[in-house]
Amino acid sequence: MSKNFPDASPETLAAQALGVTEPLTGAVTPPVYIASTFEREADLEYKNGFIYGRPDNQTVRQAEGVLTALEGGAASLLVASGMSAATGVFLALKPGDTALVPEVMYWGIRKWLNAWGAEWGVAIVYYPNDDMAALQALTQKHKPALIWAETPSNPMWSITDLKEAARIAHSVGAKLAVDSTVATPVLSRPLEHGADIVMHSATKYLNGHSDVIAGALVTREADDFWQRIVGIRKDIGTIMGPFEAWLLLRGMRTLHVRVRAASANAMAIARHFEKHPKVAQVLYPGLPGHAGHAVAARQMTGGFGGMLSIRVTGGKEGAVKAAAGLKLFKRATSLGGVESLVEHRRSIEGPESPVPEDLLRFSIGIESESDLIADLEQALAAV
Ligand SMILES: *Cc1c(COP(=O)(O)O)cnc(C)c1O
User: Fold this and answer.
1) Which residues are annotated as modified residue N6-(pyridoxal phosphate)lysine in the UniProt record (predicted)?
2) What total of structural domains would you count in the chain?
3) pLDDT tens digit string along 168-178?
4) Which stretches of the chain are assigned E, i.e. beta strand?
5) Residue 5 located in a structural domain
6) Which position among 204, 220, 345, 361 bears the catalytic label?
7) Atom 8, ligand 1: residue with shortest CA distance
């Protein structure tokens, strides 16, 4: 389709998975290419470029093509999980390098970085997510090779100004990589703001149906740093399986409608509970009172995402009781599916977590807004 219809918008590209039909039968949905190995020609060459299933796979390539188009990048890599996507970027650093990472970020990456950075001689320095003056000062001091950002960041939903972060990174020759799992390419395209690499836990919104573990990286330029990451996927063997890639390709066809519906529901819930007597605070970048609202309004388009957190009155006890009383929301980890989930993050992340004890994290799905509000109302009434 990109050839037949060069001006197609992202919705169109996603809905038709770039418009590819299968040449043998004309099928409008592609088959799953599961072969692990490919025949050589008599002259020992591989005429189609495929040699073995660890470096590459056609179903994976098709899904990568869609994501590259949605993010406006030069190339993508799909891997077995969001964690293997994130760690692939850090593993491409060298001993003696410094990485600046945000104080509030996906806890699994923070936990891995603290252990790995120390053991492998990569210095990990934290910066406050939304303080670009502090990021500037730390960058001047530490001369990092990489700045990592996550926006909106899990689970406080603070916002990082990507244009500023990119300018600061590039002023010392560093790369800016952005965990854009929560924003999705529907609401934010970090490469347009100057980022070098975008990372997704494709387990979340990109797939959207809570049935795949997957990760993705998209690059603005296929430069040397990117080639190191490509080598890491190939040599460590973290490529996504073909069945997962096929499910992801299917999931991305509905990405825009799912993300917009979840964002609209989240906005309605945030507004409804903002001044609720059992609620100490609603954390959602779509609310004008949120510290990151102005930057979010500038760098996100079409909504503020489906993730929000609520600090419940009555401390940890109040929060756990409210979660226990929910009937429609599922008490489960993860996010970005069509069904709404709730989680008491502090219990999951442990005592070193910066997350307040009274906080419940909500992944808002695409159910009826009034059903979700009614469920939260009845659960909060019991607190
Ligand atoms: C879930 C998540 C990850 C990790 O992804 P997995 O697919 O679980 O490995 C990283 N970053 C964010 C923001 C996430 O929500």
Assistant:
1) 204
2) 2
3) 999 999 999 99
4) 75-79, 98-102, 123-127, 146-150, 175-179, 197-201, 215-219, 279-283, 307-312, 330-331, 341-343, 359-363
5) no
6) 204
7) 82
Choose the final residue of a domain: 220, 252, 284. Answer: 252
Ligand 1 atom at minimal distance to the Cα of residue 83: 9
**Quick check: 359 pLDDT over 70?**
yes
Quick check: pTM over 0.85?
yes
Structure tokens at 224: 């040397």
Same domain flag for 85 and 189: yes
Is the N-terminal amide bond of 155 cis, ω within 30° of 0?
Answer: yes
What distance separates the 2 farthest-apart alpha carbons in the chain? 76
Tell me whether residue 106 is one of the annotated catalytic residues. yes
pLDDT of residue 242: 98
Residues 101 and 121 in one domain: yes
Angle, to 10 degrees, between the axis of helix 58-71 and the axis of helix 242-252? 30
Q: How far is the C-alpha of 333 from the C-alpha of 154, rounded, in Å?
A: 12
Whether the CB-CB separation of 359 and 346 falls below 8 Å is answered with yes
User: Mean pLDDT throughout 25-31?
Assistant: 94
Is 180 touching ligand 1 by the criterion CB < 6 Å? no
Average pLDDT over residues 45-57: 94
Mutate to test the pocket of ligand 1, among 89, 105, 181 (most ligand atoms within 8 A of CB): 181
Domain extent, residue 332, equals 256-381
3-state secondary structure 48-113: CCCCECCCCCHHHHHHHHHHHHHHCCCEEEEECCHHHHHHHHHHCCCCCCEEEEECCCCHHHHHHH
Q: 352: pLDDT confidence band, cut at 50, 70 and 90? A: confident
Give nearest CA residue, ligand 1 atom 1.
Answer: 201
Q: Is the Cβ–Cβ distance between 199 and 180 less than 8 Å?
A: yes
Shared-domain flag, residues 174 and 104: yes
82 touches ligand 1 (CB under 6 Å): yes
